[in-house]
Amino acid sequence: MSQPAYDVIAIGNAIVDVMAPSSDDQIGQLALVRGAMTLVDADRAATLYDAMGPAREISGGSAANTLAGLAALGGRCAFIGQVADDQLGAVFAHDIRAAGIAFATPPRPGEPPTARCLIFVTPDGQRTMNTFLGASQFLPAGAIDADAIAAASVLYLEGYLWDPEEPRAAMRRAIAAARDAGREVAFTLSDPFVIARHGEDFRHLLREGLIDILFANEAELAALTGAAEIDAGLAALAPLVPVLVVARSEKGAVALRRGERAAVAAEPVAAVVDTTGAGDLFAAGFLFGHVRGEPLARCLERGAIAAAEVISHWGARPEADLNALMTRRLG
Fold it and tell me: pTM above 0.85?
């Protein structure tokens, strides 16, 4: 097998996050589902945007955020995702390339516009996300370059993007390309609502041995397995996937790898400012260690440190020097 050019190539939603502080009262007044991610249409997106206070626009998308963390650590990364030929599409492309991530997907002409996620952040740091998927849900299977997939150690897939039909076909094509090349496939479940719609697809991928690394949180693990207790959920999935990683917010995280179990406590944070991207950055830290063959516990520690950094400020991408943080914490 040839030496990979990339540590991770990811397929995900190409989204620009629009973030603004919010009161708990406003969440209720707008009939938002607090702490969840809700898909909205163009009209609802316009209504919510008008209701937001002063906002920040930051390129986002779950898998793209994970790559931003990996790149900040020195990982070699590439991204596949669909933007429109518009202003926000240009912003997204500029930001991801400026982070040192290869991005070659051509912009899509015409409507719909580039995806955006309207994020209301309450004083406790909880984020309520309202996503208009726009152009991102039209990623064609033709955008998948088998040679690019084969050039990465790990193919990382964003569960959110499994919902629309066209990118779902693209991701299936990418899985086949990764399998043909003998590369690992990582999958993040993203949200219980995705599992409610496509859980049987995900269970089939696991039963067929097509997923090597599965990322979940406790709610997603319960939704996928039907087990309310975490240990029961872990036991249900462990035989189906070589590496299972479950983030537990303030309770830390646990992972199983071919019979080995490791757990880590959450990293202390002086103040939780915004939890957007916590899971994405946890995956970044974990994958950085994983592709370098580090012990399972060390991979979890890297994930916890990266997640703690991102929840200490606004936005879903790191602002501090992650390498310096990890050197201080891990030696």
Answer: yes
